[in-house]
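2024-03-11 09:14:02 INFO worker-7 job=invfold-0412 stage=load source=structure_tokens
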């Protein structure tokens, strides 16, 4: 295997075999940290400015518990070391191989070369003092050719270094963690194959360590390169380190479709991870570019699907009518749950049956939001034949009024009544 022979050259095989369960993931170029020309490696790395320290403190506060690590790397006051010449040479060679071969091994070797540079920085006591931007600048020096430095980048997500990189034939993401006295590769993600639809185009990522988790988790959403359209397959994953960095455990691996050109986000709040993207489908067509939120919560080693609570009322009502009761019940006033369950079953079945009709029986749902108090809204749902909007749907003959109540965080369904 290429990775084995490369590690033998770089002197990394022994340390990788001795690691406790690790994983590093591979991704591709994105706005997640394009390296810039770094500060002089001769000068001591500066302490982060107040603004950057404040920003990182805010990020830590948004991810409670996940900064708890069993050990911390050493902190020193000396200058950041220059990258070893051997590591620079191996990194250059792996980039060249990645440009020629669609195999996964060159991408994994790039991840290992970056790990070696991270280990240099953190063993010296310099790495722990760096902000994400400063760490990226220092890691970028692994490339002796400045023109190649836009092919990879390193960021800090919840305090964990993450590398993204690409070559002409592939791409990758790698998650690292300081563990047992050295920088470890925890997860590696690469492209799945040489075909276009198997390539990896990273859209967003986050690292989080929810309460009860013993290891950091990597949440990533990606698509594949194809510039002819912004509408494409999207893949959402939440990965947990295993005994093999290139074979992490998938707590979530789900494919859907949506718009990749903008507004694709991974958001973390405590033990919850949300994937948001623009979708073209909705009950209330035409509803192009509606925001879809897929929400999951970490519980006892697995992910549980939750109601996503989109911000806009039409999108919330759309989801409530479309999703099964086990999710829809999370978006109701709990004291009204028993009464709303049969109403939801009746309406959701009617919506599915109506939307399945074709040709002259095709239908169109519309929605009207009425003004009201800040804590309550009335929404009217209508259905008519697409060919003649004066004729009601056979499956949804009467308008339905849905009353929403604001609970301080989300809009919840309080009542449903057919006119």
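2024-03-11 09:14:09 INFO worker-7 stage=emit residues=419
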């Amino acid at each position: 295997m290429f990775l084995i022979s490369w590690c033998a050259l770089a002197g990394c095989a022994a340390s990788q075999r001795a690691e406790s369960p690790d994983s590093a993931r591979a991704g591709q170029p994105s706005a997640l940290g394009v390296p810039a020309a770094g500060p002089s490696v001769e000068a001591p790395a500066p302490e982060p400015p107040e603004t950057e320290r404040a920003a990182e403190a805010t990020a830590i506060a948004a991810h409670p518990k996940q900064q708890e690590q069993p050990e911390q790397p050493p902190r020193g006051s000396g200058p950041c070391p220059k990258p070893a010449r051997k590591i620079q040479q191996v990194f250059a060679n792996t980039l060249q191989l990645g440009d020629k071969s669609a195999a996964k091994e060159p991408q994994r070797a790039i991840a290992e070369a970056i790990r070696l540079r991270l280990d240099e920085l953190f063993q010296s006591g310099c790495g722990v003092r760096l902000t994400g931007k400063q760490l990226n600048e220092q890691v970028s020096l692994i490339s002796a050719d400045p023109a190649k430095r836009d092919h990879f980048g390193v960021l800090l997500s919840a305090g964990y270094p993450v590398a993204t990189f690409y070559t002409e034939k592939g791409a990758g993401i790698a998650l690292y963690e300081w563990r047992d006295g050295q920088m470890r590769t925890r997860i590696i993600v690469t492209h799945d194959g040489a075909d276009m639809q198997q390539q990896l185009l990273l859209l967003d990522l986050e690292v989080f360590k929810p309460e009860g988790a013993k290891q950091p988790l990597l949440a990533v959403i990606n698509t594949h390169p194809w510039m002819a359209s912004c509408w494409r397959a999207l893949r959402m994953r939440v990965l947990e380190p295993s005994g093999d960095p290139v074979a992490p455990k998938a707590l979530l691996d789900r494919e859907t479709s949506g718009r990749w050109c903008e507004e694709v986000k991974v958001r973390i709040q405590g033990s919850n991870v949300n994937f948001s993207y623009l979708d073209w489908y909705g009950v209330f067509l035409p509803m192009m570019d509606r925001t879809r939120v897929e929400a999951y919560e970490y519980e006892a080693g697995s992910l549980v699907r939750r109601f996503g609570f989109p911000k806009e009322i039409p999108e919330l009502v759309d989801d409530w009518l479309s999703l099964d009761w086990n999710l829809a019940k999370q978006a109701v006033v709990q004291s009204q749950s028993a009464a709303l369950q049969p109403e939801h079953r009746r309406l959701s079945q009617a919506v599915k049956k109506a939307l399945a009709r074709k040709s002259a029986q095709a239908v169109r749902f519309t929605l009207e939001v009425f003004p009201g108090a800040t804590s309550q809204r009335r929404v009217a749902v209508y259905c008519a034949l697409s060919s003649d909007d004066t004729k009601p749907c056979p499956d949804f003959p009467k308008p339905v009024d849905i009353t929403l109540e604001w609970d301080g965080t989300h809009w919840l369904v309080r009542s449903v009544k057919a006119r």
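2024-03-11 09:14:09 INFO worker-7 stage=report msg="The chain has nine helices and 16 strands."
2024-03-11 09:14:10 INFO worker-7 job finished
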